[in-house]
Amino acid sequence: MAYRNFGRENHNGLYLPSFLEDRFNVNDEEETKMNEDIVEGNWKQLSGKIKQKWGKLTDDDLKRAEGHKEYLVGKLQERYGLAKDKAEQDLKDIGCR
User: Fold this and answer.
1) Does 3.50.30.40 match the CATH number of domain 10-93?
2) What phi-psi label fits residue 26: left (phi over 0), alpha (psi between -120 and 50 degrees) or beta?
3) How far apart are CA 51 and CA 57, in angstroms?
4) Angle ∠(63,64,67) on CA atoms, nearest 5
5) How confident is the model at residue 30, as a pLDDT?
6) In this predicted structure, what is the pLDDT of residue 76?
7) In this structure, are residues 66 and 43 in contact, taking their beta carbons and an 8 Å threshold?
8) Which helix (H) or strand (E) holds 17?
9) Rounded to the nearest 10 degrees, what angle do helices 69-80 and 84-93 cross at?
Protein backbone atom coordinates (compact mmCIF):
# COMPACT_ATOMS: atom_id res chain seq x y z
CA MET A 1 0.00 0.00 0.00
CA ALA A 2 1.43 3.38 -0.96
CA TYR A 3 1.14 6.34 1.39
CA ARG A 4 0.46 9.82 0.13
CA ASN A 5 2.56 12.72 1.29
CA PHE A 6 0.33 15.57 2.42
CA GLY A 7 3.08 17.76 3.86
CA ARG A 8 6.78 18.51 3.89
CA GLU A 9 9.42 16.13 5.15
CA ASN A 10 11.39 17.44 8.13
CA HIS A 11 15.01 16.66 9.07
CA ASN A 12 13.94 13.42 10.79
CA GLY A 13 12.25 12.08 7.67
CA LEU A 14 8.81 12.69 9.17
CA TYR A 15 6.03 14.64 7.55
CA LEU A 16 4.19 17.61 9.00
CA PRO A 17 0.76 17.89 7.43
CA SER A 18 0.50 21.00 5.28
CA PHE A 19 -2.45 22.32 7.29
CA LEU A 20 -0.13 22.51 10.35
CA GLU A 21 2.81 24.20 8.63
CA ASP A 22 1.43 27.70 9.12
CA ARG A 23 0.39 26.99 12.69
CA PHE A 24 3.89 25.91 13.67
CA ASN A 25 5.60 28.48 11.45
CA VAL A 26 7.82 25.90 9.76
CA ASN A 27 10.59 27.38 7.62
CA ASP A 28 13.39 25.00 6.63
CA GLU A 29 15.71 27.80 5.45
CA GLU A 30 15.53 29.68 8.75
CA GLU A 31 15.93 26.49 10.77
CA THR A 32 18.93 25.40 8.70
CA LYS A 33 20.58 28.83 8.98
CA MET A 34 20.01 28.90 12.74
CA ASN A 35 21.53 25.43 13.11
CA GLU A 36 24.54 26.45 11.01
CA ASP A 37 25.03 29.55 13.17
CA ILE A 38 24.91 27.45 16.34
CA VAL A 39 27.42 24.94 14.98
CA GLU A 40 29.73 27.74 13.81
CA GLY A 41 29.54 29.44 17.20
CA ASN A 42 30.24 26.17 19.00
CA TRP A 43 33.23 25.49 16.76
CA LYS A 44 34.64 28.98 17.41
CA GLN A 45 34.43 28.40 21.18
CA LEU A 46 35.94 24.95 20.90
CA SER A 47 38.73 26.06 18.58
CA GLY A 48 39.60 28.83 21.06
CA LYS A 49 39.97 26.23 23.81
CA ILE A 50 42.06 24.05 21.51
CA LYS A 51 44.40 26.94 20.61
CA GLN A 52 44.74 27.83 24.28
CA LYS A 53 45.73 24.29 25.24
CA TRP A 54 47.79 23.41 22.16
CA GLY A 55 49.45 26.56 20.85
CA LYS A 56 51.49 24.70 18.22
CA LEU A 57 48.35 24.12 16.18
CA THR A 58 47.93 26.75 13.49
CA ASP A 59 44.77 28.51 12.35
CA ASP A 60 45.07 26.50 9.14
CA ASP A 61 45.16 23.25 11.16
CA LEU A 62 41.99 24.24 12.97
CA LYS A 63 40.26 25.33 9.79
CA ARG A 64 41.05 22.01 8.14
CA ALA A 65 40.05 20.09 11.28
CA GLU A 66 36.60 21.67 11.48
CA GLY A 67 34.21 18.73 11.71
CA HIS A 68 37.01 16.17 11.37
CA LYS A 69 38.06 14.95 14.79
CA GLU A 70 40.41 12.31 13.37
CA TYR A 71 42.40 14.99 11.54
CA LEU A 72 42.76 16.93 14.77
CA VAL A 73 43.81 13.81 16.68
CA GLY A 74 46.46 13.17 14.01
CA LYS A 75 47.80 16.73 14.30
CA LEU A 76 48.04 16.40 18.09
CA GLN A 77 49.96 13.16 17.66
CA GLU A 78 52.26 14.78 15.11
CA ARG A 79 52.94 18.06 16.92
CA TYR A 80 52.90 16.89 20.55
CA GLY A 81 53.80 13.21 20.35
CA LEU A 82 50.57 12.22 22.09
CA ALA A 83 49.22 8.69 21.90
CA LYS A 84 45.97 8.45 19.96
CA ASP A 85 43.97 7.51 23.08
CA LYS A 86 45.44 10.41 25.05
CA ALA A 87 44.72 12.92 22.27
CA GLU A 88 41.12 11.67 21.96
CA GLN A 89 40.59 11.85 25.73
CA ASP A 90 42.08 15.35 25.97
CA LEU A 91 39.75 16.54 23.18
CA LYS A 92 36.80 14.90 24.88
CA ASP A 93 37.73 16.62 28.14
CA ILE A 94 37.46 20.06 26.55
CA GLY A 95 34.15 19.28 24.87
CA CYS A 96 35.05 17.86 21.47
CA ARG A 97 32.79 14.94 20.56
Assistant:
1) no
2) beta
3) 7
4) 90
5) 62
6) 95
7) yes
8) strand 15-17
9) 120
For the chain, which residues make up each domain, given as ranges?
10-93
Q: Which residues is 16 bridged to in the sheet? A: 8
User: CA 72 to CA 15: how far, in whole Å?
Assistant: 38
The C-alpha atoms of residue 15 and residue 3 are separated, in whole angstroms, by: 11
Give the containing element (helix H, strand E) for 7.
Answer: strand 7-9
Q: If residue 85 lies in a helix (H) or strand (E), which one and from where to where?
A: helix 84-93
> How would you write the pLDDT of the chain (97 residues) with one tens digit per residue?
444 444 455 555 655 555 555 555 556 666 666 666 666 778 888 889 999 999 999 999 998 988 788 999 999 999 999 999 999 999 999 888 7
The answer to whether the CB of 47 falls within 8 A of the CB of 37 is: no
